[in-house]
Amino acid sequence: MKPEEKFRYLFGPVPSRRLGLSLGVDLNPAKVCTENCVFCQVGRTTELTVARKEWVPTAAVLAEFDRWAAARNPTDYVTLSGSGEPTMHAGFGEVLRHVKAAGPFKTALLSNGSLLWMPEVRREAAEADVVKVTLSAWDEASFARIHRPAEAVTFERLLAGERALREAFPGQLWVEVMLLPGYNDAPEQVKAIAELVKSLRAEAVHLNTTTRPAQAGVVVPRVPEAWLRTVAAWFSPVAEIPVFSGKAVSPVEMSDAGLIELLARHPLALEALAASGGAEVAAVEQRLAPLVAAGKLGIEAHDGVWMVRVVLA
Predict the structure, then answer these.
(1) N or C of the chain: less Cβ packing under 10 Å?
(2) Which tens digits make up the pLDDT trace of 244-302?
(3) Is-contact 177 197, C-beta < 8 A?
(4) What is the pLDDT of residues 108-150, one digit of tens each?
(5) What is the 3-state secondary structure (H, E, C) of 268-310?
(6) Distance of alpha carbon 304 from alpha carbon 288, whole angstroms
(7) Helix (H) or strand (E) segment spanning residue 250
(8) Backbone angles phi, psi at 262, to 5 degrees
(9) Phi/psi at 146 (nearest 5 deg)?
(10) Taking 60 as the threshold, does the pLDDT of residue 2 lie above it?
(11) Could you tell me if 65 and 98 are in contact, meaning their C-beta atoms sit under 8 angstroms apart?
(12) pLDDT tens digits along 201-218
């Protein structure tokens, strides 16, 4: 994709720790979601709801994708993710079907799992090649503390919905477990989560901690990598600790608008941003310097990692 091409609902492709090079499809206005997670990188949820409707125009999303695909741009996955929970969009299944019909594109749905208790949501989710769900709690109290969900979203519903999807879904089910210091990283807590994850019979388990500064009004540090590697073996299958892969457009070549659009939806470590496009870190710092000076981007340390993000107004 040419750096100057602008899209409203597509972003990237971006380097993904799970999906290689991933073209994001954002079906939510910022910030509409079913949850207000303490670790969210996008920001505080301003409309906390379980309402399912056409939050953004489906026809406009499909037209943008067709324009992107016509340029024969490379990507490993077309991924429904972005500013909120994608299954809130009433047309997310239509988007998945359209992408699959357009060519040999693999599709992924990154979901918090909160609406999978609805049969219609599970039917549409099954259109994806990969569905990634989240399971980072072990009971109602821990779920409420970490995810701060809408009233209709309960841990019981979340777990039942994820289990029901597993029974009917022929594709790859991945489970992301987000470990947070003081929330769910104690040995007995991790073991309780691992036991529930086992019941989902997932093809892969991804063990993560905060890699970008949380923007939801809570300071959440990282769990040490050594602890992640220690507890990974407690999961079945053994949990992976994902790393960035894929090759995107060099950030040095991107327009100001392109950089801001990318980082607004997907804040990145400075080194990951440079590596994604095969650029030197020093060259990326030089490219970002005018935007930092103008107060549009910020580069800040997060547990020893320099992160690049859009400065919130």
Answers:
(1) C
(2) 444 556 777 777 877 777 777 666 777 777 766 667 878 878 888 888 888 878 777 66
(3) yes
(4) 999 999 999 999 999 999 999 999 999 999 999 999 999 999 9
(5) EEHHHHHHHCCCCHHHHHHHHHHHHHCCCEEEEEECCEEEEEE
(6) 20
(7) none
(8) -65, -50
(9) -80, -45
(10) no
(11) yes
(12) 999 999 998 866 555 566
Q: State the DSSP code for 191.
A: H
CB 251 within 8 A of CB 273: yes
All residues at 6 or more sequence positions from 244 whose CB lies less than 8 Å from its CB, including other chains: 15, 16, 17, 272, 275, 276
SS3 of residue 10 by DSSP: strand
Q: Is the Cβ–Cβ distance between 32 and 83 less than 8 Å?
A: yes
Give the type of residue at 57: P
* Whether residue 157 has pLDDT greater than 60: yes
Distance between CA atoms of 72 and 105, rounded to whole angstroms?
Answer: 11
Any idea of the CA torsion for 260, 262, 263, 269, to the nearest 10 degrees?
A: -130
Q: Which domains does the chain have, with CATH numbers?
A: 10-248 (3.20.20.70), 266-313 (1.10.10.10)
Rounded Cα distance between 300 and 238, Å, is 33
CB 237 within 8 A of CB 204: yes
Four-residue CA torsion sign, 32, 38, 42, 46: positive
pLDDT value, residue 13: 81
Rounded distance between C-alpha atoms, residue 313 and residue 296, angstroms: 9
Query: Confidence class of residue 5 from pLDDT cuts 50, 70 and 90?
Result: low
Q: Which residues pair with 307 in a beta bridge?
A: 269, 300
Contact 199, 237 (CB under 8 A): no
Question: Going by C-beta distance under 8 Å and a sequence separation of 6 or more, which residues neighbour residue 275?
Answer: 15, 244
